[in-house]
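Co-fold these.
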Amino acid sequence: MTAVSAVTIATRDLLAWVKRIGTRGRLIAPTPGPGGDVLYTAVSSPEEILWDFENPLAPPKQFLLPQTDPLVHIRRNGKGVAVASVPWPGRQILFNVRSCDVKAFAYLRKAQARDLSDEGYLARDDQTVLVSLACTRPCPLGFCLCCDAGPFLKDGYDLQLTPLGGRMLVEIGSAKGGELLEGGEDWFRPAAPEDLERRKALEADARRHFGAETCHFGSAMRRVSTGRVPAALWDKMADWCLECGGCTLICPTCYCFSVRDRAEDGGWTRCRIWDSCQYPAFTLEASGHNPREHRGKRVQRRFFHKVSAQYYQRDGDLGCVGCGRCIKTCLGTTDMPAVVAAIRKGEWHG
Amino acid sequence: MADLFLPRVATVLSQRDETPDTRTYRLGFRDGAGQDGFGFKPGQFVELSVFGIGEAPFCLASSPTRRDALEVTVRRTGELTDALHALAPGDEVGLRGPCGNGFDLDAAEGKDLLFVGGGIGLPPLRGLIWNVLDQRARYGRVTILYGARTPTDLVYKDELKAWAARDDVQCLVTVDRAEPGWEGTVGMVPVLFDRTELRPATTLVYVCGPPVMISFVIQDLLMRGFGEERVISTLERMMQCGVGKCNHCCIGHRYVCRDGPVFSYREIRSMVE
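Predicted complex below.
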C-alpha cells in the first residue's frame, strides 16, 4: 500500500460524487438490462448504477474498441475524394469495472502501443478513466487469481473501489483517477489504518473462496510455445467448436479486426470491425488458399495467442484475465480452463 | 505514425495489361510532393484501396530508384481486384504504406544474385531486380529464372526480353505448357537450374511465387547446396491492417505484415504456431 494513496467516502455520499463525475465526461457503468442481464451502458442518472452484480457477459471493451469503429471519413469531393481521420468523442469514465476487465484494458493498450503504435487508440485510452470495483467474492466462473488479474488489483486502475460496509475505500492509482476526487473534499477523508487492514482482509477472504479447480498456465505455456501439443489433440478440442466466434467476441482481451468501408450519404466511412480468428474466412486468401482451414488449427491459433511464451514475452502478460466468459458462452466446452487442463494432461475429456 | 489507418490519395497515371487477368498500374500521389517523401524498399507493400470497396495489400513492383511513379501488378481474383480492374487513368485510389520489412539490399551487396519467380510471384522481385540493375556495379552475377503456366501467363514480357538481351544479366524463362509459337523451355522452374551455373557459396537466392512452387524450388535449392539462410522468400497471408494490429497474417507470434513479408528459409522453418 505504499505508493497508493487512499481515501474513504461514506456510502450515503456516493451518488452525489458519481453525479459530479458524470459532469466530467460520458459516464459508463453497469446497469440492469432486459431479462435480468447486466449491461455496461452510458448512464444519465447515478441511481441506475449497479454496485453488487455478477460481471456481465459483454465486457466493457466496446467503449474503447467499438464493434464497428469509424476510423476514416471518405467524402466525395467533385470528381475525387477527401479523406480525414474520425475524431474520438472525448472524455469518458468507465465506472464499476471489474478487476479482470481493468487488467484487460491494460493488455489492449500494450498491444496497440507496441511496434507501430495506434495513436488514435492511445488517445482514446488517455481520455478514459477506469474506476475499478474490487471483487470481494469470486464470480462463479472466474479464475482471475491464476492470471494476476484479480480479485483485487495492485495497479492498472485509475481508481479502485472497495466496499467496506457503510463507506467505500477509494484507492488512487493515477493522476487521472485523482482528478475525479477534485471538488469533493468534503466527502473524502484519508483512509485510516483500519480501513486498509479491512481491505487486506477482504482481499484475503476473496482469494480463499476460489475453488481448487483453477487454471494452471505454466505447463500449457511450455507445450503450446514449443509446438508440442499434438494436432490430434487440437482437433479433439475443436470437435465441439461450432465456429460461432462467441469466445473471441466476448473476450475482454481479444482485438482481432477487419477493415471495411461503410456506405453513407456523400461517401463512406472506413471502419475497424471486430473479427474472429475462429472464423474459417479469417485467413482465407484471395487465391483460395487457407492455412487455417481446419478448425483444430484455428483453436490452436487462439490459444497460442493467449498463452504462448512468445506472446507472453512480447506483451509482458498472458492474453487471458480469467474472467470466465468463454466458459459461459461456449456452446461446446472449448474454454480456457478446459483447454489448459487438456494440454497439461495430454487428453481431452470429451 | 500519426494515423495508422489514414490513406493518402493517389491517382492512376496509366495502366498496362500483362496477361488477360493481370494488369500493372502506375500510380502517383495526388499531392505531387508526396512522391518524393515516399521512401520504400523493394519487397515492401502498400495497402491499396478502392474507396467504397475496401483495401488490400499489394507488393510494390517498381524500384525505389525510379521515382516518377509507383507500380503495382494486380491479378484479378476478387471483389477489390475486380474494382481495381475497372479503374481508368485519372481515377483515385487510397494508398497506405510502405508496409513490411522489404529485401535487405545491404546484405546483397557484392554477392551473386539468383532470382527465381513463378507466375504472379515476379512483381515483388521485379522491384528488387530493377533496383539491382540500376546500381549494377554493386552486385556480382545476376541470374533471373522465371516460369509461368503458359506463355500467355508471363508478366512483364517486354522486360523479360530486355533482361535476356543484356550481357550483364542471365534471364531464362520456362512455361509449364507451351502454346503455338512458343520456342522456349517447357517445364517447371527447377528445369532452369540445370541451364545455368549455380554458385551456392557466393549466391543469395530470392524465391517468389505460389506456395507450392516456393516449396519445391526451395527443396531443390537445398539439395543443390544452398544454405537455409541464403534462400530468401516472401510469405503471403490474408491481411487487413498491414500494420501489425489486426492479427490476420500471424504465423505464431510473427506478423507477415511487419516481420515480413521477406523471410529467409531458416526463419520460415523456425516458425512455431
